[in-house]
Amino acid sequence: MPNVTLSNSQFLSNTRMTAIIREVEDNYQRGLPLTYLDRTPTVDADDDEITGSYTGKVLAADVIMDDQAAVVYDTGQFEFVTNKITNLKLGHRVSQSKMNMLRQMSRGNIGRDEVGLFDRWLVTTGTTLRRGVDERKNALIAAMNLDLLTYDRFGIKLAVNWGMPANLKVTPTTPWTNPAATPITDILTQKRFAQVTYGENYNRLTLSWEDMQLVIATTEFKNLIVGLIGQPVTATAYSALDDKNQGWFAQLIGMRVEFEDKQFNEQSTAGVTTSTRVQPLGKVLMSSTSDDNNPAAMDFGNAMVNEAQVNEVVGITDTMGGEQYGPLSYWEGTLNPPNLVAWGVARGFPRKHRKSATSVLTVR
User: Fold this and answer.
1) pTM of the predicted structure, to 2 decimals
2) What is the pLDDT of residues 349-364, one digit of tens each?
């Protein structure tokens, strides 16, 4: 199906669409942040860099005097991850009425106001598509942090982990749904274990608001906050909905506490829309702020989009600006039947270079 370039018109030029969308993308992203995507660098990568990753411990350099031979070590390995790179793709069909309007525009039957309206529609369409791609990237990166991805849609089934050590995936003996649970002890024990065993200094805890409510309902939390300076002197002298609970919790564990309750929407072939949590209930993530946007810890390997690579090969006049890394937006159309679709697409997969960069507690 060829990309659409209307005769004597640049209204649906893919190059123009990409340029316009990128002008507004940064502002749009700042208004609707995506926690995991925002703190993970996107790194342009070739296919081989995504299908495999180099793993190994970083060794301290030897001290070598002048004219002395240095020692060469074999400390790493090439770890095979997957034999296919995933494509992240979302399409919106253009309505017949909109197609009729575009046909009139291509004939020059348009004024300055209509051009402005079209540009706003173009921005809204393209930005929504790009956002949809980013929503999936964010969900994939969250799954990488939690070390578990289960995906089953339209015949595509994925069950993926990123090699987090088994002893960094902990299920407390007493689930936090039990008021007798000891969430503070669970967290401090795991934090200390990761520091001693892997040299990790986790200083951030990410959990749902509902899981936080389980924490403050425990006897351990109620007893411990009494010892905090300026805090309630009895276990019942506070409300479970008091925002100060988050601060008290942070003091007790010596970590920054943040809530992750974001959901993203998916639609089935039957048109039914469902919402899915980015971070499932009961999953509590421990991480370090020093790894934010640190490609040595993890990144999203971003490959060239196939559509941009084959664009010139099949003789399409609108080249989308040549080979490009995603995400990008473009048009695609057929004449039989008349059909016009706007697409948002990227190609890549998240990569975890330091397996112990995160730890997860399954608390319910």
Assistant:
1) 0.80
2) 899 999 999 999 999 9
